[in-house]
Amino acid sequence: MSSPLSLRPAITAAAASYKFPLLRKKNTISSSSSSALPMASNPAVQIGGFLAKKNYEAPPWASHLSPLPKHTYSLGHLPTPIHKWNIPNLPENTELWIKRDDLSGMQLSGNKVRKLEFLLADAVAQDADCVITVGGIQSNHCRATAVAARYLNLDCYLILRTSKVLVDKDPGLTGNLLVERLVGAHVELVSKEEYAKIGSEALAELLKERLLSQGRKPYVIPVGGSNSLGTWGYIEAIREIGQQTKTSNDEIQFDDIVVACGSGGTIAGLALGSKLSNLKAKVHAFSVCDDPDYFYNYTQGLLDGLQAGVETRDIVNIQDAKGLGYAMNTSEELQFVKDIAATTGIVLDPVYSGKAAYTMLKDMAKNPTKWEGRKVLFIHTGGLLGLYDKVDQMASTMGKWQKMEIAETIPREDGTGKMF
Ligand SMILES: Cc1ncc(COP(=O)(O)O)c(C=O)c1O
């Protein structure tokens, strides 16, 4: 037998010339022919439901909404857990619980997964061969879309917003970018100024025209996956919470649901679902960009698109949690993220749930009577990879480290499992 070392050149040469036999240039998905489905979504090659295409039936209390989705892809690891969140010094008799939508997956995780279950089913039904979406340079939505699209054998084109000085430079591999680039998403950068001037819809349209002229079949997903179809993701989450609380030993009835708001789709689904179902919890949104008025109007459009016949201002309360600006943090906010992790084990992201929880707890301290005796469900919407963008700013909040002291008298002998 040759030594492992002698195999190395052969492996390197083979790897260099290796072609994935199953990789196809263009998607040949047809909703009518299962044999033409891509690898991952072909029911014959997945076990246990993950990545399966399913017929969708809306909850009875939402069945009057229109249009109703026909299909979903099972992309999330659902239901996500709900557990008590033991943060100290809450107002009297306030019970704080947390729904762990950050655990809806790994690289494909967070709140966007729920929206993508509907959006990508629509893309496949429309015979798309690629998707386009838009977001900030560390967009969790873009990362989740890139991964989900790859699973379903769709190419993914991302338009990412960055600063004027960085728009011509390699965006690097920090956080979400690493995953996006690993799964082969096409990254196109625009400056914040171009984004503000042209707008996300027009930018996506420009890219769509280019891809159409190349013979591609692009499907556009709006910023954050927040359109009326994507709203179904969190209408479904309300059904999930209802089922979880009904079957729990505690038989808990939540009074309030608290969540971050960045493009509006999550709060639209939660607020509408909570109003229509038996849950009837009050939904509190903490907006991390734009302002509450913008989101009242935007979510109204999402609900009108479902012919819901409700006023957003009647079903959701939106408070500003933007602070210094979108994706910008004060050192106090980052210290809060660190303290929550150190006391409860919950790692919040700095851009969304971190700011929402920070502002919620400030509000609890300022207006305790508003929250006293209430059962509050905070939804952790994920975004862990966004923390990697903050490592420099967070360094000073970290605990001490030291080289392990090993007495000179302890013999340095070869042991087993040396790892080098
Ligand atoms: C981690 C995370 N949490 C919350 C949100 C906000 O959700 P929505 O865009 O539906 O308002 C986003 C995206 O914007 C997100 O990436």
From TrEMBL:
Q: Which prosthetic group or cofactor does it need?
A: pyridoxal 5'-phosphate
Q: One GO CC annotation, please?
A: mitochondrion
EC number(s) stated in the UniProt entry for this protein:
4.4.1.15
Q: What keywords are assigned to this protein?
A: Lyase, Mitochondrion, Pyridoxal phosphate, Transit peptide
Reactions that this protein is recorded to catalyse: D-cysteine + H2O = hydrogen sulfide + pyruvate + NH4(+) + H(+)
Its family? Belongs to the ACC deaminase/D-cysteine desulfhydrase family.
Q: Which PANTHER family match?
A: 1-AMINOCYCLOPROPANE-1-CARBOXYLATE DEAMINASE-RELATED (PTHR43780:SF2)
Protein name as it appears in the record: D-cysteine desulfhydrase
